[in-house]
Design goal:
Length: 219
């Protein structure tokens, strides 16, 4: 009986170590439904912007290149100082906004409960704006009255730049008015903004504009 018991015990141990244990150890790793979660965090090289009325984060190194605060309009401008991403510019107008500013592309914005949601960036506006000249039909000169033309994209009215068609300038605006997005903050109250983004890089990434504005906050 003792010998039989030892044999059974040895068989059970062999089954556990050579069959059950290896399969158990691999069960979690081989789970076809396992998912990896990724937490997006700001890079140490990102530029943190904090102005009296708003804050935002710019991807990579940027520098404040201009600050206009006169009777015509109030604006801040940052230029990318990353050699791999040169030719990028962000401009933010605050309250005093140029309603005659024309752009080549439009990013439509909707504001609900003081939060911005974004539509799809348009193509070059000369390809769908009435009276504009498509890129493949450009004349030598454009008359002054045809340089900025009224246009519409995603239910948002804007001015199409029919004069400098090769520029990569995107404007972000809402249905409220041309070149206008109204947002409120907990301490600074309600303000009007107009956002412009330019990417003259060899491989422009116009969608980065939306990524930047996703982190825009009014103080």
């Amino acid at each position: 009986m003792i010998t039989l018991g030892l044999v059974i015990l040895l068989i059970g141990a062999a089954v556990y170590f050579f069959i059950i244990r290896p399969n158990t150890a691999n069960t979690f790793n081989n789970n076809a439904h396992a998912r990896n979660g990724v937490v997006n965090q700001s890079s140490p090289t990102d530029t943190q912007v904090s102005e009296p009325v708003f804050s935002l984060t710019l991807p990579g190194p940027w520098k404040l290149s201009a600050q206009d605060w006169d009777a015509r309009y109030h604006s801040y401008q940052w230029d990318s100082s990353d050699r791999k991403n040169n030719g990028k510019m962000l401009r933010v107008y605050v309250d005093t906004i140029p309603k005659d500013q024309a752009v080549n592309y439009l990013l439509p914005i909707q504001v609900q409960d003081n939060a911005m949601s974004f539509g799809v960036v348009s193509g070059n506006c000369v390809d769908f704006t009435q009276g504009a000249v498509p890129e493949n039909q450009r004349p030598v000169n454009i008359s002054v009255d045809k340089i900025a033309l009224p246009s519409r994209w995603g239910l948002v009215d804007f001015l199409c730049d029919n004069g400098y068609v090769s520029h990569q300038v995107v404007g972000a605006s809402s249905e409220e008015a041309i070149n206008t997005v109204t947002l409120s903050g907990p301490t600074q109250g309600k303000h009007k903004f107009f956002f412009m983004y330019q990417d003259n890089n060899i491989s422009p990434d116009l969608n980065q504009f939306q990524q930047i504005l996703s982190g825009f906050k009014v103080k």
